[in-house]
Specification:
By secondary structure, the protein is an alpha+beta fold. Helices cover about 40% and strands about 20% of the residues.
């Protein structure tokens, strides 16, 4: 995990962490990889404005990892 801490919480994810993700991740993991706060991430997902593809499975949101990596580009 990265060591940049803001108010006791990690910010973002390292390249190795991103590449080790499964096919789809929970919204909290997607938020962390994009540097979004929990409230903002859920707000964007509910409005259909999340920056990459999000699947709604019952009450849970899942972020498609391939879309997340494409959004973050080669630096990811």
């Amino acid at each position: 995990m990265r060591e940049d801490m803001t108010a006791g919480r990690s910010k973002g994810m390292s390249r190795d962490e991103l590449l080790a993700l499964p096919v789809a991740v929970d919204l909290d993991t997607g938020n962390r990889s994009l540097g979004l706060g929990r409230s903002k991430g859920y707000e964007l997902a509910k409005r259909g404005e999340y920056p990459c593809k999000v699947l709604r499975l019952g009450n849970a949101y899942r972020v498609v990892t391939a879309d997340l990596l494409e959004l973050l580009g080669p630096a990811a």
